[in-house]
Automatic annotation (TrEMBL):
SUPFAM superfamilies: P-loop containing nucleoside triphosphate hydrolases. This is ABC transporter ATP-binding protein. The keyword Transport applies. Keywords: ATP-binding, Nucleotide-binding, Transport. Residues 213-238 are annotated as: Disordered. It comes from Streptomyces alanosinicus.
Amino acid sequence: MIRLEGVEVRYGDALAVAATDLEFAQGSFTSLLGPTGCGKSTLLNVVAGFVPPSGGRALMDGAPVTGPGSDRGMVFQHYALLPWFTARGNVEFALKRFGLPRAERRAHALRALDDVGLADAAEKYPAQLSGGMRQRVALARALAAEPRVLLMDEPFGALDAITRRRMQQLLAELWRRTGTTVVLVTHDVDEALVLSQRIVVMAAGPGRVIADHRMDDGTASPEDTRPRIVAQLDTEPR
Ligand code: ADP
Ligand code: MG
């Protein structure tokens, strides 16, 4: 459903991502794993439509990606909630650009907040919420438009270990329930192993894919895969 064909990204003269071919199947859960600077965010932003490829193309259901759209939801590490809006207000605000009528926006927002376990906190302001709860609002904001693809860029990186674990469980549950296609950027091997069916390992200089581990076809277990990934991350020059 998502297809990158020879996608290359340059920032000025610098080659951030060398020509990359990747496909993400509908309903799949893939992690992009690699050290800082290997182009994980750049590739995700190409899929999101925030960064245009300098070469090649990104396709969503066969149509070139030309910008952000309601079919793709994005969650960042820094949730960037608007402090003057409640949790519900933040989700509703994000829905505004999709032209839903007000009542429907509200219903969507409340349902999304309920989905992430925040039904009771809908009228609270970001300052009244913990870090984990704020990230739940950010997740609700991305889910409210019922995107077919959920793109997440190190979404749990700023959370403490326990909250992070809870958010991972919530994400796994949402993925199973909704069948949304997930692409998760992380530099945490164990997070990738716990959550995903497939792990694409990247290396820097220039950013590129160096391995594609599939754990969903019964040929490799997470236990078999872990040492291979660790070796790949270790041996690649940074
Ligand atoms: P990652 O998410 O894996 O840490 P990024 O995609 O953020 O990697 O960055 C890949 C490379 O591109 C890095 O060398 C980074 O410095 C560079 N880069 C990222 N964004 C920009 C930008 N907006 N302008 C210039 N260089 C950038
Ligand atoms: Mg990044």
